[in-house]
């Protein structure tokens, strides 16, 4: 069970890094239209779209990716621990 916890934890950490890379790609013209950018768009946009529905951009700044990363980290740290604690009966 500990190995499954570690795999899911590392997968969420990697996904968080991919979100950050995808967000920074918006600063560079044409970066999101590259093959890597399109790959990240397929992975990151479904998750980010959930937050964009509820958090509108303020002027030119979109705060929804920041909230999305915070929620992902909160779920990774507290949610994953609580889930595995419940499964293992700790």
TrEMBL record:
Keywords tagged on the record: Membrane, Transmembrane, Transmembrane helix
Pfam families: CCB3_YggT
Keyword Transmembrane tagged: yes
Keyword Metal-binding carried by entry: no
GO cellular-component term (any): membrane
Classification via InterPro entries: CCB3/YggT
TM ranges: 7-28, 66-88
Family per record: Belongs to the YggT family.
Record-linked PANTHER family: PROTEIN COFACTOR ASSEMBLY OF COMPLEX C SUBUNIT B CCB3, CHLOROPLASTIC-RELATED, YLMG HOMOLOG PROTEIN 2, CHLOROPLASTIC
Protein name: YggT family protein
Species lineage: Bacteria, Bacillati, Bacillota, Bacilli, Bacillales
């Amino acid at each position: 069970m500990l190995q499954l916890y570690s795999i899911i934890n590392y997968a969420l950490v990697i996904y968080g890094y991919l979100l950050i890379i995808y967000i920074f790609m918006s600063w560079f013209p044409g970066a999101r239209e590259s093959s890597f950018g399109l790959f990240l768009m397929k992975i990151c946009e479904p998750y980010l779209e959930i937050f964009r529905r509820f958090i509108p951009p303020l002027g030119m700044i979109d705060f929804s990716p920041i909230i999305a990363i915070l929620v992902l980290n909160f779920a990774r740290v507290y949610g994953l621990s609580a889930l595995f604690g419940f499964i293992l009966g700790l």
